[in-house]
Amino acid sequence: MAPAGKDTHFGFRQVPLDDKQALVDDVFHSVARRYDLMNDLMSGGLHRLWKDTLVIAVDPPRDRPSADPAARAPARSFALLDVAGGTGDIAFRVAAAGGAGTRATVVDINADMLQVGKERAAERGLDDAIAFLEGNAEALPFPDRSYDAVTIAFGIRNVPRIDKALAEAHRVLRLGGRFLCLEFSAVDVPGLDALYDLYSFNVIPALGRAVVGDAEAYRYLVESIRRFPRPDAFAEMMRAAGFRRVAFQRMTGGIVALHSGWRL
Ligand SMILES: C[S@@+](CC[C@H](N)C(=O)[O-])C[C@H]1O[C@@H](n2cnc3c(N)ncnc32)[C@H](O)[C@@H]1O
Question: Given the DSSP bridges, would you call strands 102-108 and 78-83 parallel, antiparallel or unpaired?
């Protein structure tokens, strides 16, 4: 329980800290079935490039192919935890990039998002490589030092207590493991910022109404981006959680940033 009177933001509204998660959950219950389609529509497909950059940074080990069967070497095992992984997009990409030893676990607080992911995994015959599990980023249901990499894409700004989620990501990483966080950021290109605001506050909620029948859910998503810490402030939060060699790279004029830190 948060101390009485402790508030946080839900988009541009102030809400009691303990109420935020339920409000976030309502948003993702509402959008789950159309979530992936909306990502393509809203970003014009750009989210695929941003996620590709994340997967390149995860760099799961690959099998070594060879015409000579004796020289073929399956890659070592590699365990990824994708927190707030929703419908499994990051896990599917890492599984495709990695070798036979790559395993991914998707943990998300929302059963509807996970259900869409499970159906996609079954369609692709990836049930063995990817596990879907209900859980809270603030209290991960995994032992210490159990993953080679931990990712979170467009998820952390929805978590009420970001410091707890960062501490948990650090706790479950093996020594030498990498944490990667893809999140919307602050546009830093003059001209693009005004255009981006116009698009975000007008077009995205209208798209949400047309495609999902819920403009409010997408208004929250746009507002929550504006409330998320700037990359240098977020890098400080990562250091406070124990991550080392913390760095970030802005993409597409600062629309998103890829944050990286290591457990050393
Ligand atoms: C914008 S979606 C991102 C989904 C996926 N990572 C992607 O990139 O497509 C945000 C996800 O965060 C999840 N989420 C929100 N709060 C959470 C929490 N406390 N713990 C775990 N997942 C959470 C939501 O249920 C939702 O699936």
Answer: parallel
Residue 28 Cα to ligand 1 middle (Å): 8
The Å distance, Cα 247 to ligand 1 centre, comes to 23
The protein residue whose alpha carbon is closest to atom 16 in ligand 1 is 159
The answer to whether 31 touches 38, Cβ cutoff 8 Å, is: yes
> Is 116 touching ligand 1 by the criterion CB < 6 Å?
no
pLDDT of residue 1: 45
- DSSP E strands: which ranges in 109-243? 130-134, 147-153, 173-184
Mean pLDDT of 102-120: 97
* pTM over the 0.90 mark: yes
**Sign of the dihedral through C-alpha 35, 79, 146, 131:** positive
Q: State how far the Cα of 81 lies from the Cα of 104, in Å rounded to an integer.
A: 6
3-class DSSP state for residue 143? coil
